[in-house]
Specification:
The chain is an all-alpha fold. Helices cover 54% and strands 0% of the residues. The protein contains 10 helices and no strands. The longest helix has 14 residues.
């Protein structure tokens, strides 16, 4: 009779990411899980005691108050620019990334969402519920749209071909499905950012 192996429960510092975790902690936990690192190891990488990391995770203290070297260490661990970590920790908010303007934020969001709704590349994917969604959801979508529709994307047909392939694949087009499958991961000369 073969012995049945029972997976061990996660030990200290091995709990999987949770939607209750603050965004930066959720990303750090997910990355540590992917790498097989303990959260104690992540805390050492950040230069903080495990107890501090656990307090951030439980929401007992805020990452907004974390020192810059800790946030830079988090960026190194994740392999992303420090600005991303500042956003994930709440030091920088989506509103901080929007150009100051005369119009109030709700009016600016409405205008951007109307542009998305009328943009032939995105109109087919636009959920009408977005117009009445929470402001932070609208801000996130507006930020993504502004980033994707910026001047560099307009000159980069690769991005629009990807959307066309996605659309075709969703409709069952075998050639579009093959094109999407061939895209896979970015190549050595391609970068996401």
């Amino acid at each position: 009779m073969s012995k049945r192996t029972v997976p061990k429960p996660p030990g200290r510092g091995r709990a999987p990411p949770s939607t209750d975790d603050p965004p930066l902690i959720r990303v750090l936990v997910a990355e540590s899980t992917r790498r097989g690192d303990t959260l104690e190891h992540v805390a050492r990488e950040l230069g903080v005691p495990y107890q501090r990391f656990a307090e951030w995770r439980r929401g007992e203290t805020s990452l907004v108050n974390a020192k810059r070297p800790v946030l830079r260490a988090a960026a190194r661990y994740l392999g992303v620019p420090t600005t991303f970590v500042l956003c994930l920790s709440g030091v920088i908010t989506v509103e901080d990334l929007v150009r100051p303007a005369e119009a109030p934020m709700p009016e600016r969001l409405r205008r951007i969402l109307e542009r998305v709704r009328g943009d032939p590349k995105w109109a087919g994917f636009f959920p009408e519920a977005l117009m009445t969604a929470e402001a932070d959801v609208q801000q996130f979508v507006a930020l993504l749209y502004e980033e994707l529709s910026g001047p560099s994307v307009g000159r980069n047909e690769r991005d629009f071909r990807w959307m066309l392939a996605l659309h075709g694949a969703a409709l069952g087009d075998a050639q579009a499905q093959a094109e999407l499958a061939a895209r896979g991961e970015p190549g050595p000369d391609e970068q996401l950012f």
